[in-house]
Give the backbone structure.
Amino acid sequence: MPSAHFVAPDTIRSRFAAAMSEMYRQEVPQYGTLLELVADINEQTLADNPALARQMTAANDLDRLSVERHGAIRVGTAAELGMLARLFAVMGMAPVGYYDLAAAGVPVHSTAFRPVETEALAINPFRLFTSLLRLDLIEDDGLRQRAADILAARDIFTPRVRELIETFEAEGGLTEAEADTFVAEAIETFRWHEDATVDYATYEALASEHKLIADVVCFRGPHINHLTPRTLDIDAAQAAMPEYGITPKAVIEGPPRRDVPILLRQTSFKALEESIRFAGDTEGRHTARFGEIEQRGVALTPDGRALYDRLLAAAQTYKRDANADYQAALHGIFEEFPDDLDTLRRRELAYFRYEAVGESTLDVEAFTDDHGAIEALVASGHVVAHPIVYEDFLPVSAAGIFQSNLGDDDDAGEGTAAASQHELEAALGRAVIDPFSLYAEIEAESKRAALDTLMGRTPENTLA
Ligand code: OOG
Ligand code: NI
């Protein structure tokens, strides 16, 4: 039982997210502009759309909106990833999902550290898309060894944060003072350094293999490369970016605009070209850090996701140089995807969280099973079904984001490397959580709770 004088992991995560956001705003002023743009658009969208405001309030999804961010980092070794998993555990964040980017020609595989419980997500859903470089994909033996040696020589964690992670693990929590120090020390790992750890020739050799390899290997640590606020209208955000002095990438990734948003739509601005000081005092340039905006919709079941993947694959033949044309084509293809909450729910294409409202006079004996009871209670208005927000990422979108920010425009193309989820898990020291199982559990648990409330059920008289 954690002691009462410990700071809740949800609180530490909130403070960490705020500290990261402040650090990135200092480092990349355009990120501050992006936050303003998103805040303006969200305010306008809610004012124009009271039904959306009501739905989000009822689902407890509005309070978190102004602090909601995801970030991305890239590490070089299994040991670094293993330590990160322990660091994020202090903040109630667990690795969810496996993303094989090698399939799209990007030499990393990834997971997302995030909170998993409904209550924790409502407090602050901060997530970090975390990639591990796959050195095994460097073909040149000498270069691969050189990269491994450089990575082995660095420590991306401060001594104090290592101690505090151990304290957390031994004591079961951190005190107020420890939590403050933990946040201050933890963000150091993700800070930008304009001095590289290698000379220019080494940087060039690694970058010519893949720009991402140079980004991971040549610096002191895994600098945060973007922080993404959540918008309620990504089309409006994309259109407004030029007015705010920001040039968006060519197309919005993910599904098209719909009445019921599904999964995740994302856009970004190009990485900044930044000046770097290499060992031996050579000046050079590097692109790594960029800005991204996203709109989140309802999480899809495996059936819904299969439909999404099939339709998105059908759209891959369309040109992706003009957003309006691409979106129009995508819209046509996605006609096949039901676009109202009731159909998505009844056809089990999306996940919902059920909530009892008011009191029911329905008789528990009248139903043969929970499914019939829930359907009757939804129809009679005694239970409401809130769409569950998609909290994860999309591999095809992520590949598009990576590629548009590596400083070149051409697609990296098809990769051939086999996925190796067990290697990522060995580095993490644990299995990644299957995102579908999390949504399914929230849905099932909410159904049980709603029926218990409305039917005065106790664990003893619960239906099978
Ligand atoms: C991560 C890119 C993926 C997203 O939102 O899909 C990502 C990276 O560039 O390190 O952040
Ligand atoms: Ni991102």
